[in-house]
Amino acid sequence: MNDATSQPETMTGAEILVNSLVQEGVDIVFGYPGGSVLHIYDAMFKQKQIRHILVRHEQAAVHAADGYARASGRTGVVLVTSGPGVTNTITGIATAYMDSIPLVIITGQVPTSLIGNDAFQEVDSVGISRPCVKHNFLVNDVKKLAETIKKAFYLAASGRPGPVLVDIPKDVTAHRSVFEYPGNIEIRSYKPILNGHPGQIRKAVDLLLSAKRPMIYTGGGVVLGNGSKELVELTKLFGYPITQTLMGLGSYPATDPQFMGMLGMHGTYEANMAMHECDVLLAIGARFDDRVTGDVKTFCPQAKIIHVDIDPSSISKNVRVDIPIVGTVDRVLQDMIKAVQESDRKPDVEALAAWWKQIEAWRATKCLRYDRKSPLIKPQFVIEKLYELTQGDAYITSDVGQHQMFVAQFYKFTKPRRWINSGGLGTMGFGMPSAMGVKLAFPNETVVCITGDASIQMCIQELSTCKQFDLPLKIVNLNNGYMGMVRQWQEMFYDKRYSHTYLEALPDFVKLTESYGHIGMLIEKPGDVENALREALALQNRLVFLDFKIDPSENVYPMVAAGKGQHEMILSPYQEERELA
Amino acid sequence: MRRHILSILLENEPGALSRVAGLFSARGYNIESLAVAPTQDPSMSRMTLVTWGSEEVIEQITKQLNKLVEVVKLIDLSEGSHIERELLLLKVKVATANQREEVKRLVDIFRGRIIDVGDATYTIELTGACDKMDAFLKAVEASLIIEVVRSGVSGIGRGQKSLYL
Ligand SMILES: Cc1ncc(C[n+]2csc(CCOP(=O)(O)OP(=O)(O)O)c2C)c(N)n1
């Protein structure tokens, strides 16, 4: 029946927002309410499709959404109020931006009539977030809301992913409009390149097949671009050594003989030496970060460099490359595999044998040696045990410091998206909230947060969130009583002047955890490490905080001091021979 | 280090300009001048940005600009033959007949125009390439200059070379 008076049904902006999120397949939103998002929270209350996880600090909401995104590959979603709600998210947004993680952050804003008046809880959210988002929007008309949300999700997840912020004034969430969610979206000024240039790919493969001392170096881009399968296939096809950045770990199995360990500041001796000596370097989804290159003037001095990346601005930014290839990592690697298979050239077997012999000689330095007989708990030992007990199959998040490097060195990741840490920004406080996001994405998997006594206190309040939402994380606190990584620099480069790195007033972490309603364990002897870990892992439905009192003097080796060349490593002073004698 | 003139088609949206400006300050790139206004298509602005730097820096600048979601298209005009123009508005003191004569003579030589005459001032309009403005400003007696207003360079490619959607 065509009733002349019948109008198309309208909704409020808040309802349009929630329905748009449903259209995007969002199942979880991490957030914290406040004045300017009251309409949105009311709409959230009335629906059942989206679960809202109430954090205890907005920074944690972003880290949790970030952990969710890194582990699942889906876009993480955050909802916060204006003013302090937004400023609290900035650390989280910058963290996600540096590691190219797809997030959509919805922020409330004061009503449009008050914008620019220094209104209560007004902050220029678009301005304050601009340098650390892929893009952002201020929605000043309810009619544009659905389309803007569509654009935000598209931008966040496509091309080089990243966080996108959508600022919505309160009145826009109250205004009514017809809800129409766009099916597809075109942005004329945004066209990511997907396929690598065939000529460049052919040139790259020719160069790789003519190499005498080849090296493959890959980064977070392979994880984010879901190119792990192709990477393994290509690396096996070549038979070349492969090293990975902190962000790349897991996208090639660390248990494989071709794997050389991580490279860079705390990379293995063999990986850094092989980088220094190689004649052809294939870099994939990596960005030649200063923690990887050391002094760029002495970086891979003999190598012709091939660089595969989704982001043209990553190419030749820090190090000039010879063959750039822009495209998605899975497609480019598929094309490379095909080109290798079709080529009449084969890798130079003789040269390769000599190269591997050299690599074995470097490996023989056993650069990750440490004192296994120490009466104190060694952090490396805890990670090794955790690796054994979880068979390398757990989701591991970390904070920032020595403990993070020990995980990277000693936990042998064999699958992508299992290793969740803040590489680019190096954000202390990331570990526990990101683990919450991982656990929510994979409720049946073991999720372990490895942290330090300083880092854990930056978002410790989230123990409360874990209680409310029943998130049985395992928290491994490698408690050295110091900001270990900073102390290490002070020991090595500031004559042991430990300026403000001793924490002295640490809480009793066991009691603290218990007061939040979880289980705490204190472990002080190496002989108790394995049992404690076993017990904690067996308590599948409880959050367990394991406080390991570790050797406070342990340092991370090898180390390339800031500004030094990649081949100039400081090696562990510990000698296994002495142990045997 | 060379001077480059980048011509940019930009979405005509609030915030687009600050994204460009923010990029330059955040990454420590130079801006010599920046001129921007809407085009025949009101949804797009055309920006001319003059910068300088090594080839590597200019390459990064163009890549970073292209990465901004609101940048539709971009060319480096200085890579080919092009025309650049700037508008100069200049107010000078002209107290004596001599001074009036001298200023008028210079304006004629540089093919400018006197567009306003006050009790003791002339306002001059001059267009041309950047170096012409510089030469003109040098030629005018410094003590006579009251105000200098320059628009910043606008540029366009010669012949077939065009920037459009
Ligand atoms: C938010 C933040 N502030 C400061 C730093 C600088 N920083 C890097 S590592 C570190 C010490 C971390 O100590 P802890 O969490 O105890 O870990 P450990 O190094 O002892 O394993 C500090 C202060 C940082 N990365 N992040």
Low-confidence stretches of chain B: none
- How many strands, what sense, and barrel or not for the largest sheet of chain A? 6 strands, parallel
| Annotated CATH homologous superfamily of the largest domain in chain A | Thiamin diphosphate (ThDP)-binding fold, Pyr/PP domains
CATH superfamily of the largest domain in chain B: ACT domain
- CATH top level label of the largest domain in chain B: Alpha Beta
Structural class of chain A: alpha/beta
How would a crystallographer describe the biggest sheet of chain B?
Answer: 5 strands, antiparallel
Instruction: Give the low-confidence spans of chain A.
Output: none
Strand percentage of chain A, roughly? 15-25%
Number of helices of chain B: 4
How much beta of chain B, percentage-wise? 35-45%
The overall strand count of chain A is 22
Structure report:
The complex is a heterodimer of chains A (581) and B (165). In chain A, strands 3-2-4-5-7-6 form a 6-stranded parallel sheet, sandwiched between helices. Helix content of chain A is 37%, strand content 17%. In chain A, helix 1 packs parallel to helix 6, helix 3 (58-72) crosses helix 17 and helix 15 packs across helix 16 (402-410). Chain A has 581 residues and is of the alpha/beta class. Chain A folds into 3 domains: 4-178, Thiamin diphosphate (ThDP)-binding fold, Pyr/PP domains (Rossmann fold, 3-Layer(aba) Sandwich); 198-363, Rossmann fold (3-Layer(aba) Sandwich); 379-556, 3-Layer(aba) Sandwich (Rossmann fold). Chain B folds into 2 domains: 2-80, Alpha-Beta Plaits (2-Layer Sandwich); 83-154, Alpha-Beta Plaits (2-Layer Sandwich), CATH 3.30.70.1150. Chain B contains 4 helices and 9 strands. The structure holds thiamine diphosphate. Thiamine diphosphate binds at residues 399-403, 426-429, 452-455, 478, 480, 482-486 of chain A.
